[in-house]
Amino acid sequence: MPSEFSIRAATAEDAPTLAALNLACWRETYEGLLPAETFAALTLEERLDHWRGAFQSSGSRVALAFDVDGAAVGFTHWRAHEFVLGGRLGRGGEICAVYLRRAVQRRGLGRRMMRQMAREMRASGCKWASLVVLRDNLPARRFYEALGGRRFGRELSWRGVPQIAYGWRDVAGLAAHQ
Ligand SMILES: CC(C)(COP(=O)(O)OP(=O)(O)OC[C@H]1O[C@@H](n2cnc3c(N)ncnc32)[C@H](O)[C@@H]1OP(=O)(O)O)[C@@H](O)C(=O)NCCC(=O)NCCS
Predict the structure, then answer these.
(1) Local structure of 16: helix, strand or coil
(2) Does 102 sit in the ligand 1 pocket, CB within 6 Å?
(3) H/E element holding 76?
(4) Which atom of ligand 1 has the smallest separation from the CA of 144?
(5) Ligand 1 within 6 A of 174 CB?
(6) What pLDDT, on a 0 to 100 scale, did the predictor assign at position 26?
(7) pLDDT band, very low/low/confident/very high, at 106 (cuts 50, 70, 90)
(8) The N-acetyltransferase domain covers which part of the protein (predicted)?
(9) In the predicted model, is pLDDT for residue 1 greater than 80?
(10) Residues 3-51: pLDDT tens digits?
(11) Domains of the chain
(12) What separation in Å is there between the alpha carbon of 100 and the centre of ligand 1?
């Protein structure tokens, strides 16, 4: 059965679309989770700067999802992270963002976009994947746990808001997740 959503790689030309979509998703997600002044300070200009910068720095992989009418309804962003451990070079995928408009949530699109990111990570030689999520964003945490993500590390803080990390030791498992 054909999917009701299409997904494609985003390019620098998509920065205005991403900025507007990003802001709309943040407003739907973070009201009540972020301090009121932080929430009120979210702007389109800042998001536009962010996305223009993301496409200028090498290694950002961004995808956009569209509904049947061509409206942008979701996006993902990841980049490779390299480090040396015990004299060996390790490479993992850092998931920077996965956001869908509320109207299209719980229809399997998030799972599909995570799977696609994991496949890209595998193809680029990443062994593991990780991300940071607000501790109190419980729906997102349940989603990552349903996809096999495991909490690791200590609690972090972003502008006083608690954050925690989730990871997948073997990105191949996420790439194959049904
Ligand atoms: C989190 C998000 C990406 C999940 O995508 P989605 O398309 O809604 O989720 P899926 O339909 O693919 O769900 C896959 C599984 O995850 C779990 N899950 C997803 N959303 C859940 C929720 N709100 N509560 C509990 N479990 C949930 C379920 O096990 C689900 O399987 P099921 O529907 O068969 O029960 C999406 O809901 C979203 O964009 N939320 C707002 C933004 C956000 O919080 N992003 C993360 C920031 S770190």
Answers:
(1) helix
(2) no
(3) strand 72-85
(4) 16
(5) no
(6) 97
(7) very high
(8) 5-173
(9) no
(10) 899 999 999 999 999 999 999 999 999 999 999 999 999 999 999 999 9
(11) 6-175 (3.40.630.30)
(12) 9
